[in-house]
């Protein structure tokens, strides 16, 4: 079984994410390292950086010892494929800022959506994404956090729904070894990959292995889907309550290839705010049942 966790709030300071993760039984976690709905934020204070490292060192999970794996999710404002020069430069600067914050905090990976071409065509958009990543890496060789490209549902002009598009981005990079993948189960299903079918699951992984030689799958987002197969709707649902059901998650949890991989919930919290805690119980139950 992978290292199960959830996206947890960093309200009040990034160090606050650790006790929140421990409270719901996380073996890994995801957080925002700045307000995801704004372009700029105050610099991280040295005291907060120190508090984050101390909290990480002190936090254990039900199935993992400290330090637990941690990834961050980049701001949704960032569009590395933007055809508008001002927005493109703002997106590149914002990504660099988040990677630098993550590096200071020792965050393992920063998950980012590749971008949307906004009508300029997929080929142009994919090339712009690669140039954007090259520019960020060239300007900031001191970055230590890995960048994790996330597959998308492919809604509208959003890129990155197919393995071919992700491979095109990576193949154009000057430093492809600095990039990994984060795979989202809801996004894959919405993009037409039927993870309910064992053959489709294996085919998906085989396609990735064949098309992307350097990047590896460094994180999963475990989300059921409100939308049906191939509808390109990025709408997450609680585990077992959506169109995916429980079988794909049981299969993934039993896959020894991902035994040490962070698996992060981004499912609805519910009215009581306990959705992630419930879903962690469901996932651990699926794994225990599969072993039996």
Describe the model.
This protein is of the alpha/beta class and 292 residues long. Helix 4 packs across helix 5 and helix 8 (247-253) crosses helix 9. The chain has an 8-stranded parallel β-barrel with strand order 1-2-3-4-6-8-9-12. The protein has helices at residues 17-24, 46-58, 85-105, 122-139, 163-171, 185-190, 198-211, 247-253, 275-291, and strands spanning 3-7, 28-31, 70-73, 109-112, 115-116, 146-150, 158-159, 179-184, 217-222, 224-225, 236-237, 262-265. It has a domain at 72-261: Divalent-metal-dependent TIM barrel enzymes (TIM Barrel). The protein is globular, with a radius of gyration of 18 Å. The protein is built from 9 helices and 12 strands.
According to CATH, the homologous superfamily of one domain is Divalent-metal-dependent TIM barrel enzymes
Assign the CATH topology of one domain.
TIM Barrel
What is the β-strand count?
Answer: 12
Question: Which structural class do the helices and strands define?
Answer: alpha/beta
Mean pLDDT: 97
Helix share, percent: 25-40%
Q: What string gives the helices and strands in order?
A: EHEHEHEEHEEHEHHEEEHEH
> Shape from CA axes?
globular
Biggest sheet, spatial arrangement of strands: 1-2-3-4-6-8-9-12
Alpha plus pi helix count: 9
* CATH architecture term of one domain: Alpha-Beta Barrel
The separation of the N and C termini measures: 14 Å
Major sheet: size, sense and barrel closure? 8 strands, parallel, barrel
Strand residue percentage:
15-25%
* Poorly predicted spans: none
Rg estimate, integer Å: 18 Å
The CATH class label of one domain is: Alpha Beta
